[in-house]
UniProtKB/TrEMBL annotation, chain B:
PANTHER family for the chain: TRAFFICKING PROTEIN PARTICLE COMPLEX SUBUNIT (PTHR23249), TRAFFICKING PROTEIN PARTICLE COMPLEX SUBUNIT 4 (PTHR23249:SF15)
Pfam (any one): Sybindin
Predominant cellular place of this UniProt entry's protein: endoplasmic reticulum
Compartments where found: Endoplasmic reticulum; Golgi apparatus, cis-Golgi network; Golgi apparatus
Name used for this protein in its record: Trafficking protein particle complex subunit
Gene Ontology BP, a term: endoplasmic reticulum to Golgi vesicle-mediated transport
The organism's taxonomic lineage, starting at the top: Eukaryota, Metazoa, Chordata, Craniata, Vertebrata
Family note: Belongs to the TRAPP small subunits family. TRAPPC4 subfamily.
Tagged with keyword Transcription regulation: no
Length: 195, 257
């Protein structure tokens, strides 16, 4: 399909019910296929990762954000721009660790879990684990500010982060909380001999 | 057309998409009788004019067609060697078309990798910290504009020096790329964008330059139009990160094999 030039920044409106239903069908099918909650969580994370590495290009193309210089700016951009653009919600950022490398995203309402109730036999299922994978994948492809290191052929380096759910409304908590932790900069995409 | 070419280069420096939309180049076709008063020599698998510039035929022009039939590098369409053919008085009078040789796909690949390296050097040479790479390269006949995204993909556009609005064109191309790269689940990131059966044009639409592409995404083989060894050659997508080794150097259209 080819896009016309006047598409601009308008996004196609889609019914959020269809989105919720699609996600629900996906998770239930995975549960049937894998039977083990841990495996389903891993698969959701992997799928989210694949979505994230592609979504970041779309995000950068449409939102015109510049480079983020540190983890705090990254957190702001994720919460205020990215979540707003794709899910229509604006989570709040709290609980910064003293070293500034961990923070929490608090989602008041999660559009993925509208009308969902977790049954007892799936108590360790992380229903929205796709979101963690998306965050991980997107940040791995996006870039942090270049440090004046040795001669890099790709001047930017990527960030490896860890994202996990620490609170979930499906499990009875009041809000959904995703904890994001900065692990390291990834530098293994420099070509051999550039060390 | 004021846009001459578009190149998309991935993070590793490999060319993943290329589009040429030149206006017809200066070509000259003349009928010659034996002996040929131009000195021809073989260079890089092409027959070039080495001496004898006249009438629109300049030194460096390549033999493009003999008697109306396109030559295939150093061989004529029937498989004979061009220099031998032109050395034989029995073949005269002959009509030869000369013109500026087109870049082969291999050459485009090499140029893209070289530009990628120069881009990195450019940002290192800067006296200021945190400089971007090459954004524009200007010559008297064209301007090269480059936009590197935050994910390391470079979009390079060669345009007429007087053409304005290339920055927004580059952003637009990025948007279109993000659509085609993202929305097709069968496209692997950083891989060449195959358009064996597709067609790509740059057009003027609603007041901006826009890239219209209809790529074809298949996992199976696609038939490239080139006849090597007398048979149509299939193109298979490669799984490695490097661009595929075998290219259709016979096709002037952008195709990967």
């Amino acid at each position: 399909m080819s896009r016309q030039a006047n598409r601009g920044t308008e996004s196609k409106k889609m019914s959020s019910e269809l989105f919720t239903l699609t996600y629900g069908a996906l998770v239930t099918q995975l549960c049937k296929d894998y039977e083990n909650d841990e495996d389903v969580n891993k698969q959701l994370d992997k799928m989210g990762f694949n979505i994230g590495v592609r979504l970041i290009e779309d995000f950068l193309a449409r939102s015109n954000v510049g480079r983020c210089h540190d983890f705090r700016e990254t957190a702001d951009v994720i919460a205020k721009v990215a979540f707003k653009m794709y899910l229509g919600i604006t989570p709040s950022i709290t609980n910064w660790s003293p070293a500034g490398d961990e923070f929490s995203l608090i989602l008041e309402n999660n559009p993925l879990v509208d009308f969902v109730e977790l049954p007892d036999n799936h108590s360790s299922l992380i229903y929205s684990n796709l979101l963690c994978g998306v965050l991980r994948g997107a940040l791995e492809m996006a870039v942090a500010r270049q440090l004046p290191l040795r001669f890099p052929t790709v001047p930017q380096v990527q960030m490896a982060v860890e994202a996990k759910f620490v609170q979930d409304t499906l499990k009875g908590d009041g809000v959904t909380e995703i904890r994001m932790r900065f692990i390291r900069r990834i530098e293994d995409n420099l070509p051999a001999g550039e060390e | 057309m004021a846009i001459f070419s578009v190149y998309v280069v991935n993070k590793a420096g490999g060319l993943i998409y290329q589009l040429d939309s030149y206006a017809p180049r200066a070509e000259a076709e003349k009928t010659f009788s034996y002996p040929l008063d131009l000195l021809l020599k073989l260079h890089d698998e092409r027959v070039l004019v080495a001496f004898g510039q006249r009438d629109g035929i300049r030194v460096g022009h390549a033999v493009l067609a003999i008697n109306g039939m396109d030559v295939n590098g150093r061989y004529t369409a029937d498989g004979k060697e061009v220099l031998e053919y032109l050395g034989n008085p029995a073949n005269y009078p002959v009509s030869i078309r000369f013109g500026r040789p087109r870049l082969t796909s291999n050459e485009k690949l090499m140029l893209a990798s070289m530009f990628h390296s120069l881009f990195a050097i450019g940002s290192q040479l800067s006296p200021e910290q945190g400089s971007s790479g090459i954004e524009m390269l200007e010559t008297d006949t064209f301007k090269l504009h480059c936009y590197q995204t935050l994910t390391g993909i470079k979009f390079v556009v060669l345009a007429d020096p007087r053409q304005a609005g290339i920055d927004s064109l580059l952003r637009k191309i990025y948007e279109i790329y993000s659509d085609f790269a993202l929305k097709n689940p069968f496209y692997s990131l950083e891989m060449p964008i195959r358009a064996c059966r597709g067609k790509a044009t740059v057009g003027w639409c609603s007041g901006t330059w826009t890239l219209f592409t209809q790529p074809s995404w298949t996992l199976g083989p696609s038939w490239c139009g080139c006849f090597v060894g007398g048979r149509r050659q299939p193109c298979w997508p490669h799984k490695s990160l490097q661009p595929p080794r075998r290219l259709c150097s016979n096709c002037s259209a952008w195709q990967w094999c």
